[in-house]
Design a protein that fits this description.
membrane; LeuE-type; 0% strand; mainly alpha; transmembrane helix; 9 helices
């Protein structure tokens, strides 16, 4: 039965705070966006950002519809998809870590929409976060409004904070414009991506 308006607002605020804590914290996608911004610049990373957002929408839909749970009822298939996603993210980390210094990058093909989509849809941390948010929180609203509200909040958090990660990375780019420091920055982001992949993998165990 729907709760009182005040209790619904309080629950919604609590959910929004939890969504920010889980979805805006460092992870494969957020760090990849910051790394892309630092390595290639804001303008050249926008398509990557759009692709990640679209992939996260797919991931959220799989969790919301229960297909993610069904998938994990087949351990071999679930493990295969997990391994594929980890390998892909590691390859992206390598690509960013070996990106050329800023002054030599113009001829380099940057990660685009497709790369972002795969990263968003294969983001292990995102699945764990969506499962916790959509399955563990109750707002007290009617079922239709509740699911729609939670999904909308998650989407807004992803879009806003992913963009902020990209923006922050692009600002760091100006600080590390020297070729040597540019390399250090790119490699550091790549190592952080690898670390978050390892941490995200523990969430599936």
């Amino acid at each position: 039965m729907p709760g009182t308006p005040l209790s619904v607002y309080q629950a919604t605020f609590t959910f929004a705070v939890a969504a920010i804590a889980l979805l805006a914290s460092p992870g494969p996608a957020t760090l990849a966006l910051a790394a892309s911004g630092a390595a290639y610049g804001m303008k050249r990373s926008i398509r990557f950002f759009i692709g990640i957002t679209a992939g996260l929408v797919i991931a959220m839909a799989l969790v919301a519809t229960g297909l993610y749970v069904v998938l994990h009822s087949f351990p071999v298939l679930a493990m295969a998809l997990t391994v594929i996603s980890i390998v892909y993210i590691l390859s992206l980390a390598y690509r960013i870590g070996t990106a050329p210094p800023i002054k030599y990058e113009q001829a380099v093909v940057t990660p685009g929409w497709g790369a972002g989509f795969v990263l968003g849809a294969a983001n292990i941390k995102a699945y764990a976060a969506f499962a916790a948010l959509l399955g563990s929180f109750t707002l007290g609203a009617s079922p239709a409004w509740e699911q729609g509200t939670k999904a909308l909040i998650c989407l807004v958090v992803c879009v806003v904070f992913d963009f902020l990660w990209l923006f922050a990375g692009s600002k760091l780019r100006k600080v590390f414009i020297h070729p040597t420091w540019s390399r250090v920055l790119n490699v550091s982001f790549a190592l952080l991506m690898i670390a978050t992949v390892a941490w995200s993998f523990t969430l599936t165990q």
